[in-house]
Please model this.
Amino acid sequence: MLTLEIPEQLQRKIAVMASLAEQTPEQLALEMLEEHLDHHSAYIESAYLQRSERNRARLDRAIQEIKNGVFEPRALIDD
Model:
């Protein structure tokens, strides 16, 4: 079991946000933590892929195509 000490000022902010989202503060905090970890993992993976010049060029091209509206929407695969 993980126990965190959250400063009172942050607890108040979480409580306000949780009430707006109709969640308990604990639910909101866990959801925010999970989202942060997901984003962090994506940044780590992107940094790894960009170490190769070829991959970096492919990623840059894909980003530019998305910005230009050139993409095919697809359903996400839930692993």
User: Anything to note?
Assistant: The chain has three helices and no strands. The chain has a mean pLDDT of 92. The chain has one domain: 9-67. The two ends are 26 Å apart (CA to CA).
